[in-house]
Amino acid sequence: MIKGIKHIIFDLGNVLLNINPSLTDTALRELKIPDFDTVYQNLIKQDIFNQLETNHISGTQFVEIIKSAAGIPLQDHEIINAWNALLLDFPLRRLQILQQLQLHYDLVLLSNTNEIHEQQFNQTLHSAHGIPNIGVFFDKVYYSHRVGMRKPNPALFQRVLDECSFKPEHTLFIDDIEENTNAASALGIQSVWLKEGMTIEKDIFLAINN
User: What are the start-end ranges of the H helices in the chain?
Assistant: First the structure.
């Protein structure tokens, strides 16, 4: 553990929750949307995915936009299932680490996500481990679609520091995207970039595992 830490801010995907975005790409392609690559690029240009993650459009609106863009008849559940395909599992050891950390640190969850994914990953957690939602491990939870901002926006990190009364030098932030850890570091937050292949149980919280 980095010295002087009193507060820990966790990212979700690929830090606590295993994800594989290529599975959603595959699932969307399997819907047989004509000229899928062009459709997908147009959605990116329209900023649809960021709008979903900052609640400028709802999950229902997102599904309707995809249905309209697809150009073929699609059911809501087909789109939602494809969109959720990237969400995998919460390894039990990571949940146990959170339980142990709760005894000694202030814990905050900070994730770029959306309402469709939130419903699904909490359902996955409940089905696999009997835990109602990931928020039970944290003092506060900040989801981009609930606060209207996404990492690496410095204003989002500052909001967490201010609302939680955290001093940046006593705060550790863990994320799998270097752009996000760089933004946090610029505010004085001690940050760890969880590179591909690294895990919190193998590479960060070794003492807890022993």
Answer: 21-29, 36-45, 48-53, 59-70, 76-84, 92-102, 115-129, 144-147, 154-164, 178-186, 200-203, 206-209
Which residues in 105-128 are b (16+ Cβ under 10 Å) and which e?
bbbbbbbbbbbbbbebbeebbeee
Q: Could you tell me the pLDDT band of residue 65, with boundaries at 50, 70 and 90? A: very high
Count of domains in the chain?
A: 2
Structure tokens at 1: 């553990």
Over residues 30-46, the pLDDT tens digits come to: 999 999 999 999 999 99
For residue 194, the cross-strand partners are none
Task: Give the CATH number, domain containing residue 102.
Answer: 3.40.50.1000
Q: What is the DSSP track for 82-108?
A: HHHTTB----HHHHHHHHHHHTTSEEE
Q: Is there a single domain that holds both residue 99 and residue 163?
A: yes
Residue with tokens 């073929």: 72
State the pLDDT confidence band at 2, using cuts at 50, 70 and 90. Answer: low
Burial degree of 131 (CB within 10 A; 0-12, 13-18, 19+): middle
Q: Per residue in 83-124, pLDDT tens?
A: 999 999 999 999 999 999 999 999 999 999 999 999 999 999
CB 89 within 8 A of CB 124: yes
Is residue 11 packed enough to be buried (19+ CB in 10 Å), middle (13-18) or exposed (0-12)? buried
* Total Cβ atoms within 10 A of residue 172: 20
